[in-house]
Design brief:
This protein is of the alpha/beta class. The chain has one domain: 3-Layer(aba) Sandwich (Alpha/beta knot), CATH 3.40.1280. Helix content is 34%, strand content 22%. It has six helices and seven strands, in the order αβαβαβαβββαβα. Strands 3-2-1-6-4-7-5 form a seven-stranded parallel β-sheet, with helices on both faces.
Length: 169
Amino acid sequence: MNRLTIEEFKEEKKTPFVVILDNVRSLHNVGSVFRTADAFLVEAVYLCGITSTPPQAEIHKTALGAENTVDWKYYEDTHVAVDELKAKGYTMFAIEQAKGSTMLPDLKLDSSKKYAVILGNEVKGVQQTVVDVCDGCIEIPQFGTKHSLNVSVTGGIIIWEFFKLMHNS
């Protein structure tokens, strides 16, 4: 199936893209984001606030070992992670329903740039003070009766879309 070994994965050129989890409660959601990040060669996952860190059995259950392949860092305060990435030239997007947000199908990326996205808490979303320091918000259009998606589903959609856009532009 042409799967990389852990060592080969670590050496593989990564997509210049970081996923930040801002106070995500569910360890299964964290694990799922790791697994998707592995699938699409995400540079790193930053775990912030109350977001749990590996090793945890519940993270491993959905990550299936991706928590050992994808680089990750923990930050007590999401703002510190955002500030660090902005200082390194990353363009920051909160994944949030907000006035003036860019609908995902309208998103245009420059493959020569580096990006980071912030996925928020399952109930409260991305902290408003974090949204305020981002370069913009991205919203996934929804057409049914519900107006929210599970964090891991959102992560999967966003990570795939960024991977496609960054490798096809």
